[in-house]
Specification:
This protein is mainly α. The chain is built from seven helices and two strands; from the N terminus they run ααααββααα. It has one domain. The longest helix is centred in the middle third of the chain and has 25 residues.
Length: 183
């Protein structure tokens, strides 16, 4: 169990680190994030700048809290709370038929779709496992912890680049692949 917790902590911390860095890396990136909130009718127009700041502060705080042993529970709890809020907002937007876009990681905005719901649900599961697994005092080896951290990092890489992966898969032809023979 401690290895699952470590993997989930690393997954959660790196995903939120990428989200915060993506939004805060430049004034233009932050402005793009704030502009995307205009399509989210769940947040009143007057509160959108404050909501954007709050999201960025929370996303930047989560990895720091997860990295410090005495604040890991708070970091995992904050992460789970944020992800639950994001997932709830996405579901409400889908129910309303709103074609909102997300600059989740500060890059090119993508229209929210099923893959974003799945990704956020899985990340919520990871953050929840990190939170619920706090205080597990089972023995762990250094090698096992490093392997678990590697799996968490790999999961974060997939989560952060999911839109790029989906775009690449969509561009691969389903049939008609031709092979040239060398004689």
């Amino acid at each position: 169990m401690p290895y699952v917790v470590v993997a989930c902590q690393v997954l959660t911390a790196l995903t939120f680190l990428a989200a915060a860095v993506g939004k805060l890396r430049s004034r233009a990136a932050y402005a793009g994030f704030v502009a995307e909130l205009d399509a989210w009718p769940l947040v009143p127009a007057g509160l959108r700048p404050a909501a954007a700041r709050a999201v960025c502060v929370a996303e930047a705080s989560a990895p720091v809290l997860l990295a410090v042993p005495v604040t890991r529970t708070a970091g995992a709890g904050l992460s789970a709370l944020l992800l639950a809020a994001f997932l709830t907002a996405m579901i409400l937007l889908r129910i309303r038929g709103t074609a909102a876009r997300c600059t989740c990681f500060g890059r090119t905005p993508a229209t929210l779709g099923a893959r974003h719901l799945v990704r956020t649900t899985l990340l919520l599961g990871g953050a929840s496992a990190a939170w619920l697994g706090q205080g597990v005092d089972e023995p762990a080896t250094v090698g096992g912890v490093l392997i678990a951290a590697g799996f968490g990092a790999l999961g974060a890489l997939v989560a952060v680049t999911l839109d790029d992966i989906a775009d690449t898969v969509r561009q691969v032809p389903a049939h008609g692949v031709t092979h040239t023979s060398r004689s």
